[in-house]
Amino acid sequence: MTTPQSNPEEETCPAQALLKSLSGKNKAAIFRLAVSAPLRFSSLLRQIPGSNKQSLTVALREMEAEALLQRVVVQEKPLHVEYVLTPKGQLLIPVFEQLEKLSQE
Amino acid sequence: MTTPQSNPEEETCPAQALLKSLSGKNKAAIFRLAVSAPLRFSSLLRQIPGSNKQSLTVALREMEAEALLQRVVVQEKPLHVEYVLTPKGQLLIPVFEQLEKLSQE
DNA sequence: GCAAGCAGTCAGAAATTTATGACTACACCA
DNA sequence: TGGTGTAGTCATAAATTTCTGACTGCTTGC
User: Fold this and answer.
1) Which residue of A has its CA nearest to B6?
2) What separation in angstroms does the CA of B20 have from each of A62, B1, B9, B27, B81?
3) Minimum-distance CB partner of A50 among B3, B52, B103
4) The pTM is what?
């Protein structure tokens, strides 16, 4: 038995999408690292234990889609890509800190 | 290619487990309803669009395991079960509120 | 007695998420 | 010219999550 769904996108809770965009594989770790510095794909791969290209790609794309991260092609000497927190992403920092505090019990 | 994992439980970010325990199917909706009143299984089923017994059971069990909800058998006239927020669950309320505020943009 | 509500459990299927390895394309260095 | 590094894509496979429908056991009302 299933409660009828008029719309498959039916939102029961406004925070749900945001919560989901932070809870996939590697997302928390990515966010955490993004707080202190711009991210590079290959260094994420080295820094996050158990990560792999595919899931990093997925995580980065989804966080971009949620407007938490912005992908920037740095037009400099050794041309490369950086991911930086957007203003919306920065608003999440205190939420994250609270979450970390709570998880220490 | 995968970064080596010494321990499969390797925690890259302390908030990750907590985040996960809030992001499964129906969890946000359950939490939200739990803020205002004790929950009954059958009314959750009616109130949450797109929910079904199995996923509610899973969500409730996991939130219990994370110590966000407590399952209480109410020894009264029509013997029944209630789920209530634990103190740890209550600490999450402000986090949730911030998350909801942020998701409105 | 029997139907209905409550609070589930269980098995199997379908859908979604992650993992793996191969491959691409460009730049840089020697 | 070849090797290394960056930043991926793609297809397939494996693992995890979610759905569905049937079934259980207890209580209350008609």
Assistant:
1) A49
2) 16, 25, 14, 10, 25
3) B3
4) 0.89
